[in-house]
Amino acid sequence: MALRHRILKSLEVPNQEEREADRWHNHDLMPVDPPRRTWGARQFVELWILVNMNIAGYQTGSSLVASGLKWWQAVICIIFGNLLAVTFCTLNSTSGAYYHIGYPAIVRIAWGMNGSYFALVNRILLSVVWFAVQAWNGGLCVLVCLRAIFPGHIDAIPNPFPASTGMDGAQFMCYILFMLICVPLTYIHPHKLNTFFKICSVIVLINQIAMLIWALATMKGGLAGSALTTDVALSKTDLAWTICSGIMAQIGSIAAGILNDNDFTRFATTPERRAIISQAVTFPCTSFITGLFGILITAATTERYGEAIWNPPLLLLAAQQAGGSGSRASTFFCGFAWIVSQIGINVPGNLIAGGVDVAALLPRYINLRRGAYLILLISICVNPWQLLSTSSVFLNVLGAYSVFLSPMTGLMVSQYYMIQKRYFKISDVYIGDKRSIYWYTYGVNWRAFVAFFSGVAPCITGFVGAVSPHTVSKAASRLYDINYVLGFTIAFLINWALHVVFPVLEQREFIEAMERAGAPKNLDGLQAFLAETDSKSIGEMSQPENVDEKA
Q1: How many domains, the chain?
Q2: In a domain, 286, yes or no
Q3: Is 513 helix (H, G, I), strand (E, B) or coil?
Q4: C-alpha to C-alpha distance for 448 and 108, rounded to whole angstroms
Q5: d(CA 170, CA 158)
Q6: What is the model's pLDDT at position 536?
Q7: What superkingdom heads the lineage (predicted)?
Q8: Tag placement on the chain: N or C end, fewer CB within 10 Å?
């Protein structure tokens, strides 16, 4: 036993404060203290440039065209999809901006202290999948750069994989190299990412503008109609539903970011001006620009290469094949910029955000950095080279996760605005027994689970049809075509209704007491925590009591 205790003690995360880490708390999960609130409006602008102006955002517009839409119809999907997405994002991220707590802490309020593990695991799986997808695209960019310098050597790398895998030996090698490049960046804590954001966002903007100018200036015969439209004939009804599906796919492409945007807004210096307004403006603009650029660049280069190449690194590889040393030089710099773009989205959006979520599973033994390492290692099992093999599969992947993420977002928004009335008792987020008003029943808020599965249920059949060859009814497909809005709305309303019919009395008493006292809503999270705990340590508060369970 003594040996086991010493081993477990050696695995505990290093203390960064007076309080010891325990099951419910470590430094990365606490409210952000003022010295670490370093994100101003510029940082959020730069963040959303990186989140949206990457390969996944570039491919969205082109994939919409491949689904049967004309280019201007795809643009409509991008515009309306982003307007809806920024609305959901703003609603969900406001609590983090004011209370300076992230997704792992907020889901405890909505799901219960133990129930929050369900929400965490779901979000962790998304981090793994998206890291894998973005890392694979990043690996292709590494391949562009290496092939520009060593064309003969790269082409001579043996391929141990069968054709059915959708990749070769050189691509897999570059995929691993890209992931290794990401590892050192996990040592940068989110509040110190300002310089990183500034450099990456400038490189990304210049690169996409340069690629658009190159594509338009060197195109042959004008914008290729085959890239701006398809031969798929759609009836008016089918067209309307395809547009709805495209809008949902646009939201789905950023649904994971909408769900855990609190992990970033918690670092805001001031909530309204720095986080909320800057995001509301930058989010839709950058996503629209990169989607439109993707459509125009693909259309301008289709005639030259004989096909619509909607993946930027594959387009650069085609340019290398068709040109000489000058083409290799230009594609090297473009490839490098796309590497920066993929790092810019993958490190903060998947490694860091996912790392915090993993840390919340075992705070005593896992911190943000260790969680990021686990995300990276597990992501190899996702087989991203198959997810991105065709545009239709890619579009299905974007939309599919919305079925599960939209109800989670909806119930979190209803919890904050309608149930908690924007009053959080921050100290109770770190207490794992009946003393916490967020303990519910054995640590689980059953109302949240009912709301979640109610939001998922209408779309689950259509989800199966979208990601597999199984044929489903037209009604199921139609419901799936509006999956995000439908799931969000159902979960929002049912969660609210269940808390009205089956209220948590301790929460109601806390909210009424705050209202009687005239306490301002959206108190600073750290100040509220310190006031509520009255200088007690987390370790003292977290000791379990032998008490009966709440209803």
Answers
A1: 1
A2: yes
A3: helix
A4: 11
A5: 8
A6: 46
A7: Eukaryota
A8: N
Inter-residue contact 88 to 251 (CB < 8 Å): yes
* Any domain includes 402: yes
Average pLDDT score over residue span 233-242: 80
Q: How many angstroms separate the CA atoms of 279 and 3, rounded?
A: 51
Output the furthest CA–CA distance in the chain (Å, rounded): 78
Residues 114-144: pLDDT tens digits?
A: 999 999 999 998 899 889 988 998 999 999 9
CB 256 within 8 A of CB 130: yes
- Chain mean position to CA 180: 21
Residue 119: other Cβ atoms inside 10 A: 26
Q: Which two tokens stand for residue 120?
A: 């965490």
Please state, in angstroms and rounded to a whole number, the distance separating the CA atoms of residues 455 and 487.
Answer: 4
Say which residues have a Cβ less than 8 Å from residue 439's Cβ, sequence separation at least 6.
Answer: 112, 113, 431, 432, 433, 549, 550
pTM above 0.90, yes or no: no
Query: Residue 233 gets which letter from DSSP?
Result: -
Dihedral over Cα of 307, 312, 318, 319: its sign: positive
CATH of the domain at 270: 1.10.4160.10
The C-alpha atoms of residue 356 and residue 103 are separated, in whole angstroms, by: 9
Residue 222 CA to residue 356 CA, distance in Å, equals 48
Q: Binning pLDDT at 50, 70 and 90, where does residue 531 land?
A: low
pLDDT for residue 189 is more than 80: yes
Q: What is the distance between the alpha carbons of residues 2 and 457, in angstroms, rounded to a whole number?
A: 49
Q: CA-to-CA distance for 464 and 93, rounded, in angstroms?
A: 30
In a domain, 432, yes or no: yes
Domain span at 244: 27-541
- Residue 4's pLDDT is 67
Q: State the residue for tokens 């597999």.
A: 468
Q: What is the pLDDT of residues 190-206, one digit of tens each?
A: 888 888 889 999 999 99
**Contact (CB, 8 A) for 430 and 363:** no
- Please list the helix, strand and coil fractions of the chain in percent, rounded to the nearest 5, in that order: 75, 0, 25
How confident is the model at residue 402, as a pLDDT?
85
